[in-house]
Amino acid sequence: MIIAPRVTALLAALNLYVLATDQDPGCWRALIWRKLQAANVTNTKFVGTQPAQGCGFIYDGANEGHGGGLATAIVSNNQLPR
Predict the structure, then answer these.
(1) Rounded to two decimals, what is the model's pTM?
(2) Where is the signal peptide (predicted)?
């Protein structure tokens, strides 16, 4: 993944909070975190109540992925704030 220099500079100037809500198997959160670190975007904080999965290396993998939960159900059940 190549991040354009201007995007990298913008991201470096911000505090970037990531709320991952997907319960997909695999280590996609870990891979995103690693790529951000490699691009020198180190001011990232993954947030959520669920812990990181074991992906073979240490990373900030807090998330809000709950098995069986669907974003479409939140909309269908009228659970969005107004």
Answers:
(1) 0.61
(2) 1-20
Other beta carbons within 10 Å of 32: 17
The alpha carbons of the chain give a radius of gyration, in whole angstroms, of 15
Cα 4 to Cα 1, 14, 39: the distances in Å are 10, 16, 10
State how far Cα 18 lies from the chain centre. 4
Taking only the tens place, the pLDDT of each residue in 21-39 is 666 667 888 998 999 899 8
- Helices within the chain (DSSP H only): 5-12, 28-38, 71-76
Q: Which two tokens mark 13?
A: 């100037």
Return d(Cα 2, Cα 73) in angstroms, integer: 35
